[in-house]
Amino acid sequence: MGKLPRKNNNTKYLHNTTKRAIIYEVNEIIFAHCMEGISMKQIQKIVLAYSGGLDTSVIIPWLKENYKGAEVIAVCADVGQPEDFQAVEKKAYASGAAKVYVLDIKKEFLEDYVWPTVQAGAVYEGKYLLGTSFARPLISKKLVDIALQEKADAIAHGATGKGNDQVRFELTVKALAPQITLIAPWRMWNLKSREDELKYAEAHGVPIDYMSEENPYPYSMDWNIWHLSHEGDDLENPANAPKDMVYMVSNTPEQAPDEAEYITIDFKQGIPIAVNGEALDAVSLLTQLNKIGAKHGIGIVDIVENRLVGMKSRGIYENPGGAIIMYAHRELEYLCLDRDMYHYKENMAHTFADLVYDGKWFSPLREALSAFVQKTQETVTGQVKLKLYKGNIISAGSTSPYSLYSEEYVTFGEDAVYDQTDAEGFINLFGLPLKMRALALQAKDKK
């Protein structure tokens, strides 16, 4: 009897590879059928975060095309961007939306998201005042509210697969309504460029403003009452200085008046309540400070920041009113918080900023930190005076009924409240660990 042929390991490998390829192909077919089943049977209503721009306008027919029979409900949130919201609503219907909501949420945005972040002193990576970051969870919360009201099956957004906003939208939905399906067309479709989107829009009857599309502003922008951001085009090279045409809110420092302006801001428990002695609601107050700050070139930030998804991005931010408020709030805390509280809160602010930046507004830790912050702000009440001049904010005095500053104690002149000889015993005890270590090292060296 002849020998059996030896097994060929390469043949076995190829055979197994072929089997795996067949399995993968079958799985893809099953997945496609499952997706088809989901789109046909389960996804009957989709709530879309709608801006009125090209991306989200194209998404409406794309959703209807890929989720057969589904209604698309467009939700446009007014957080202070200068839009013609009647035109936005009209465009959403013309693009195929079954229903359109336009929500004015500026007051809620400032009172429930911006002011708590100001109180926390949270700034991302030392520069970014979180303008987009804390707007997204509120917008997403409104999407969830409407999805539940409309008994919708899914929420869709127009964020790309490279940025932070996709995370912010989706984490909020997961935190508030985990049963709702999330749809992110930019991670799914085969449209790769603005030209592709324009062709798709034209083929599906989406209204296009050809004047703006032929000569679009070259930067990607996010605009709300707190800030305006710019990314893309020549800004993608960090070596390039921003052109003056970038700025749509603020004067450049060179364009600012040659004369300084003094303003006062009043705070109550860490919340700004008045400008120049005039009590104002949140929206009016920030609107006035934006106008004043923009005139003087205040709040322009150029940062190469670390995105959550792992890459660095370069952005230009305009924050005239926000920069003034954050500066003034910090000045008042210098006056009203004791050393331990201020230092601990300063460290906590970095964590708070990271949580907001990462889309974790509705996380237990952020909520717990906000509870701590509220306690710290009980005495942050008073008035701050500032000098504004060509892009600079300069302190010009602060007062508070809760001030911890005592001229009696700190004066270099004669006083009757502080015995300077007490410092000797304090220093001896405070420095005792250092002294004991030095003595131990000296004794070791002598052996």
From TrEMBL:
Subcellular location: Cytoplasm
Classification via Gene3D superfamilies: Argininosuccinate synthetase, chain A, domain 2 (3.90.1260.10), HUPs (3.40.50.620), Single helix bin (1.20.5.470)
Top-rank taxon: Bacteria
Alphabetical list of PROSITE patterns matching this protein: ARGININOSUCCIN_SYN_1, ARGININOSUCCIN_SYN_2
Cellular component terms per the entry's GO annotation: cytoplasm
Reaction catalysed by this enzyme: L-citrulline + L-aspartate + ATP = 2-(N(omega)-L-arginino)succinate + AMP + diphosphate + H(+)
Binding-site positions, ATP: 49-57, 77, 158
Key words of the record: Amino-acid biosynthesis, Arginine biosynthesis, ATP-binding, Cytoplasm, Ligase, Nucleotide-binding
Protein name (database record): Argininosuccinate synthase
Native source species: Megasphaera hutchinsoni
